[in-house]
Write a structure and sequence with these properties.
The complex is a heterodimer of chains A (112) and B (114).
Chain A (H helix, E strand, L loop, with lengths): L3 E4 L2 E5 L4 E7 L6 E7 L6 E7 L4 E4 L2 E6 L4 E6 L8 E7 L8 E2 L3 E6 L1
Parallel strand pairs in A: 2-11
Antiparallel strand pairs in A: 1-3, 3-8, 4-5, 4-9, 6-7, 7-8, 9-10, 9-11
Chain B lengths: L3 E4 L2 E4 L5 E7 L5 E8 L3 E10 L2 E4 L7 E2 L9 E3 L8 E8 L9 E2 L3 E5 L1
Parallel strand pairs in B: 2-11
Antiparallel strand pairs in B: 1-3, 3-8, 4-5, 4-9, 5-6, 7-8, 9-10, 9-11
Classes of the chains: A mainly beta (112), B mainly beta (114).
Chain lengths: 112, 114
């Protein structure tokens, strides 16, 4: 089955700097890669997703890149703000599979 | 408002006392799923349902049961809870299970089994 590894487990950056979180997946057939943000005590919420026929997707300060050859995808947050502090989860889904496989999560802290 | 509603939000109970966590969605989604979240392990799928009367095991189904008698409801049942089931539980739904559609999560249920 699919396996997703996420790094780093914790990340601390200065406000205004960029943050990058990376995930690798094991099954090259995976074709859907969402990212979720979970604030303290809250539910995970989808922030951006990408499908395997696209190499990059942007939404304001957030971008996701996908390298199918290397089987990894990354979340990029630019001009970080205190409200970006949260736990971020990546996930991958195989076509026809009925589940998302999640990474272990990255706790991002933005220092003022 | 489109939402996934879980109840209860918090529960402290004792080993062996059967409990049910309810989950309801108002988006007419076909796919529903239960996850547990434990520190350092991320979100792990317990059970999922592709539609009414169609359920299947996820990665960590032991000790849990589910049912899907109606499209909107997907309760999680712990017949004989044990301390290792102390965790934060999330229910999620999406329009369809395959092909990749965003999952909408409930607010979570924190269970403590003493």
């Amino acid at each position: 089955g699919e396996n997703v590894e996420q790094h780093p487990s914790t990340l601390s950056v200065q406000e205004g700097d960029s943050a990058v979180i990376k995930c690798t997946y094991s099954d090259s057939a995976s074709n859907y890669f969402p990212w979720y943000k979970q604030e303290l005590g809250k539910r995970p919420q989808l922030i951006i997703d990408i499908r395997s026929n696209v190499g990059e997707k942007k939404d304001q300060r957030i971008a996701v890149t996908l390298n199918k050859t290397a089987k990894h995808f990354s979340l990029h947050i630019t001009e970080t703000q205190p409200e970006d502090s949260a736990v971020y989860f990546c996930a991958a889904r195989l076509p026809g599979a009925q589940k998302l496989v999640f990474g272990q999560g990255t706790r991002l802290t933005i220092n003022p | 408002e489109a939402q996934v509603t879980q109840n209860p939000r918090y529960l402290i109970t004792v080993t062996g006392k059967k409990l049910t966590v309810t989950c309801s969605q108002n988006m007419n989604h076909e796919y529903m799923s239960w996850y547990r979240q434990d520190p350092g392990l991320g979100l792990r799928q317990i059970y999922y349902s592709m539609n009414v009367e169609v359920t299947d095991k996820g990665d960590v189904p032991e000790g849990y049961k589910v049912s899907r008698k109606e499209k909107r409801n997907f309760p999680l049942i712990l017949e004989s809870p044990s301390p290792n089931q102390t965790s934060l539980y999330f229910c999620a739904s999406s329009l369809e299970g395959s092909g990749g559609s965003p999952q909408h999560f409930g607010d979570g249920t924190r269970l403590s089994i003493l």
